[in-house]
Amino acid sequence: MNDVRFMIDGKECLGKPGQTIVEAAKANGVYIPVLCHFEGLKPVGSCRICTVRVGGRFMAACTQPLIEGMAVENTAPDLEDMRKSLIEMLFVEGNHLCPSCEKSGNCELQALAYRYQVLAPRFPYLWPRRDIDASAPLLMLDGNRCIQCLRCVRACRAKDGRKVFAAVDRSRRVKIEVDKKLAAHLSEDQARRAMDICPVGAILRKETGFAVPIGRRKYDAVPIGSDVEKGTGR
Length: 234
Ligand code: FES
Fold this sequence. Notes:
By secondary structure, this protein is α+β, with helices and mostly antiparallel strands. The protein folds into 2 domains: 4-75, Ubiquitin-like (UB roll), CATH 3.10.20.740; 86-211, Alpha-Beta Plaits (2-Layer Sandwich), CATH 3.30.70.20. The protein contains 8 helices and 10 strands. The longest helix is centred in the middle third of the chain and has 17 residues, at 77-93. The radius of gyration is 18 Å and the shape is globular. FE2/S2 (inorganic) cluster (FES) binds next to loops.
């Protein structure tokens, strides 16, 4: 099949039929921020951090397939400010205490906050009361930091295919719960994958922490997005 020609912020790019804007942008060395999206998982378009504009219309770049000739706006000031405001909203609607979090330096939300130079959010903090479920032998689920991206729901399954995590309730009350019976039998690898798939510090491996000191972690070394922009992204 022929390549798909498209443009991002005036840069001429080539993509593959069936690719989403996020995938094709990355293949062309253009970074579009994502949070709920994770390579290999079916995109759900829930966080909207990846919003771009095409023909005057806003769309989620992680779910929108490429169309021949499309001209994508990715870094217009209003788009970037909207992304920054979304990041700020995520910070105020949860309880994110970065300095004491095991995910600090590996956290995608924190890394995006640095990228967008978030200082004091423009919204009031809500300080919600959220549950912590530490009943699983290897994992701890901390609702205070959960951003409801559903990556864990989509990615983590038991050997028989059943989902280890599930979203319960709706709208503002939505929260992630872990299936206690399945979680009781997670292997070390499954527990590690669950922690790694979480973009924030909502799912943490128990009994171990701070093996790599803060300051020497992934986004301490390479700011988020810069590897894609340099064409070396994973
Ligand atoms: Fe596209 Fe979340 S990354 S909507």
